[in-house]
């Protein structure tokens, strides 16, 4: 008897594919989604066609078998009104809900708290009111909770402590009141309750988060708000009993009418105070206007002023090349939506106008974490303006924070731009801030990198020297000098790449003092040479080597000169562009040379550093580093040491400064940048 015919492998695979395609979530989940959409007005058509599988609907993600709905993502589609009850709660396997940046109002839907597998809940940027329900503690699988920029009120619930797996909690920009509960969640990495109406002392369990997490709450006190320590509370003495020191005065007798003269005096005083306030406002306005004009002149005549700390939507557009830098105020919701067509660039532009990840780790962990659309929707805060462009702190939906630098005056074509950025992205060293990706369009060029919250060396050295500031001691300055030298030496020896933009604002600090990192390296080829772009590069603001005529062509020796100026800045506490000798301003190396020539070497060192003292050993090290710095800023390039020699000389000055030698720092390449930035030992443990 003949054997039955066998189906070919291709036919079997086709049948399996058709079986999976025909798989459909239960009818109850499908009807719940339809009821949700029908009960919530929306501005954009979603195309939830009843004839197609629910797993193919816009914003819906099912599991691999298409057997159940696990994600609902409908950000910024114009949802209006209340979330209908008994809809989303009928999707028992939901893991992610993202309804951010819509116009939902009313209280937080109660049936969301019945979803046992929910890991991420993003409701920020809506108009929700009422309290944060204590029922949120039922979501024991929750890892990310974002309720920021709504109109929520009431206290922060203590029940949040039940969410032991929580990694990010964002409640900023609401009207929450009362005292903060002691939230002790070991895995919590991102926490923000800024710009609410909270009061009282910050619990010790939350003091590990930066001051920005608590900003805008005028009645909060305690660490980490060093300028607002909590005052002890002394209750007023109780009134004496009637039989004690005297009889109580009836309330009716305490009320006295003001005399006419008192009323006139109060009116005159109020008028004088108002006049004084008006004068002060005018003076402040004139002062700010002058400062803004000076800043624009120093920054290459840029017309777009950006104030550090201003929050706004970060919205570059592939169509127009515009990006929102500053919003309408500190409390403004900072998410703006762009259409998917604009995000993709449309048609052929989709293949070119996209976020490109660079480097070994940039293409792996980061590419899985977000894409261009996520970046365009992120909230943004201006960090500062430099010679290359404006830097923004961008916070993504999942709580990840990155730095986005919006470049200006880029002269490089796409191919040259990509080659330059990819070469910089290939660099891996603990003392060089990694470049993660870039975006190139006709009118918009962006760079994406790690956000290091500790700030720059420039801010640490030259920030306000008033009360509450922690001075930078000699050990910290020596470690910063060594970190900068090691980063430059690695660029020169391992990658044959000049840095080209060494300055204190580009040396970013970390909790680990041996892991400070230089940024903005290897980018000079992207910009037009002088005079179209004067002082663009290593030497802007006093760091530039005297022989460097073309800012696009930095050399190893010009890098060493800039490194020497950085050392002088650490020693003197002076900004390189603000040194003075007699009646005129000179660059920092010339000023130091003039003082040393007159044998007033002690006058060179920062008075703040001298006041802190440290004995003869520190003074000897300061003089030794001064000698290294003067060798680095020699007028003749050939007279300057190589960067590797500079590292060796600094290591020989003080063996106790910096726990890692050059070889040890090279050996940390296998550790992720996230671990290094947190000071995590190279054991591979997740922070």
Automatic annotation (TrEMBL):
Any one Gene Ontology cellular component term annotated for this protein: membrane
InterPro entries: At_inactive_RLKs (IPR050994), Kinase-like_dom_sf (IPR011009), Leu-rich_rpt (IPR001611), Leu-rich_rpt_typical-subtyp (IPR003591), LRR_dom_sf (IPR032675), LRR_N_plant-typ (IPR013210), Prot_kinase_dom (IPR000719)
Signal peptide start and end residues: 1-23
Subcellular location: Membrane
Domain Protein kinase: 377-662
Pfam families: LRR_1, LRR_8, LRRNT_2, Pkinase
Predominant place of localization: membrane
Example of a GO MF term: ATP binding
Residue ranges of the region described as Disordered: 232-251, 293-332, 654-687
UniProt keyword list: ATP-binding, Leucine-rich repeat, Membrane, Nucleotide-binding, Repeat, Signal, Transmembrane, Transmembrane helix
Protein name: Protein kinase domain-containing protein
PROSITE patterns: PROTEIN_KINASE_DOM (PS50011)
Lineage: Eukaryota, Viridiplantae, Streptophyta, Embryophyta, Tracheophyta
SMART domains given in the database record: LRR_TYP
TM region positions: 261-286
């Amino acid at each position: 008897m003949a054997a039955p015919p066998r189906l070919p492998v291709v036919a079997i695979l086709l049948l399996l594919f058709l079986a999976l395609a025909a798989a459909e979530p239960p009818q109850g989940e499908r009807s719940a989604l339809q009821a949700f959409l029908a009960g919530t007005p929306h501005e954009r058509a979603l195309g939830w066609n009843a004839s197609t599988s629910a797993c193919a609907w816009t914003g819906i993600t099912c599991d691999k078998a298409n057997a159940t709905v696990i994600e609902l993502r409908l950000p910024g589609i114009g949802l209006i009104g209340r979330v209908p009850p008994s809809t989303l709660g009928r999707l028992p396997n939901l893991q992610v809900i993202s309804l951010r940046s819509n116009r939902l109002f009313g209280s937080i839907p109660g049936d969301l708290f019945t979803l046992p597998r929910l890991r991420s809940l993003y409701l920020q940027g809506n108009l929700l009111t009422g309290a944060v329900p204590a029922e949120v503690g039922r979501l024991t699988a929750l890892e990310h909770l974002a309720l920021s920029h709504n109109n929520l009120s009431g206290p922060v619930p203590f029940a949040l402590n039940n969410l032991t797996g929580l990694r990010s909690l964002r409640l900023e920009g609401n009207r929450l009141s009362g005292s903060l509960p002691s939230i002790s969640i070991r895995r919590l990495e991102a926490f923000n309750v800024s710009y609410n109406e909270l009061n009282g002392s910050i619990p010790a369990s939350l003091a590990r988060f930066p001051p920005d997490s608590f900003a805008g709450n005028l009645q909060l006190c305690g660490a980490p708000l060093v300028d607002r320590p909590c005052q002890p509370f002394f209750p007023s003495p109780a009134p004496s009993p009637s039989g004690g020191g005297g009889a109580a005065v009836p309330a009716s007798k305490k009320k006295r009418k003001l005399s006419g003269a008192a009323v006139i005096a109060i009116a005159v005083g109020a008028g004088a105070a108002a006049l004084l306030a008006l004068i002060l406002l005018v003076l402040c306005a004139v002062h700010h206007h002058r400062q803004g004009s000076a800043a624009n002149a120093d920054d290459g005549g840029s017309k777009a002023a950006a104030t550090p700390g201003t929050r706004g939507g970060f919205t570059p557009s592939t169509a127009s090349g515009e990006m929102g830098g500053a919003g309408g105020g500190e409390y403004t919701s900072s998410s703006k939506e762009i259409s998917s067509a604009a995000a993709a660039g449309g048609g052929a532009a989709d293949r070119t106008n996209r976020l490109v990840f660079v480097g070994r780790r940039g293409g792996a962990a980061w590419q899985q974490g977000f894409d261009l659309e996520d970046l365009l929707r992120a909230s943004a805060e201006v960090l500062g303006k430099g010679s290359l462009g404006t830097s923004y702190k961008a916070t993504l939906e999942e709580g990840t924070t990155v730095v986005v630098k919006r470049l200006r005056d880029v002269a490089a074509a796409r191919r040259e731009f990509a080659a330059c950025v990819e070469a910089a992205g290939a660099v891996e060293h603990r003392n060089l801030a990694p470049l993660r990706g870039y975006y190139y369009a006709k009118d918009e060029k962006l760079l994406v990198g790690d956000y290091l919250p500790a700030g720059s060396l420039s801010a640490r050295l030259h920030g306000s020297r008033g009360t509450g500031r922690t001075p930078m001691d000699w050990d910290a300055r020596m470690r910063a000098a060594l970190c900068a030298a090691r980063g430059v030496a690695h660029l020169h020896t391992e990658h044959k790449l000049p840095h080209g933009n060494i300055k204190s604002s580009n040396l970013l600090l970390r909790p680990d003092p041996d892991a400070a990192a230089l940024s903005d390296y290897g980018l000079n080829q992207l910009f037009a040479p002088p005079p179209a772009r004067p002082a663009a590069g290593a030497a802007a603001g006093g760091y530039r080597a005297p022989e460097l005529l073309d800012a696009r062509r930095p050399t190893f020796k010009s890098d060493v000169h800039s490194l020497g100026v950085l050392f002088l800045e650490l020693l003197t506490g002076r900004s390189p562009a603000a040194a003075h000798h007699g009646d005129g301003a000179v660059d920092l190396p010339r000023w130091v040379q003039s003082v040393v020539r007159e044998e007033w070497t002690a006058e060179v060192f920062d008075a703040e550093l001298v006041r802190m003292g440290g004995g003869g050993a520190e003074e000897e090290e300061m003089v030794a580093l001064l000698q290294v710095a003067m060798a680095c800023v020699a007028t003749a390039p050939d007279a300057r040491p190589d960067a590797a020699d500079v590292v060796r000389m600094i290591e020989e000055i003080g063996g106790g400064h910096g726990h890692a030698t050059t070889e040890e720092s090279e050996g940390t390449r296998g550790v992720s940048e996230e671990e290094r930035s947190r000071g995590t030992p190279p054991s591979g443990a997740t922070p």
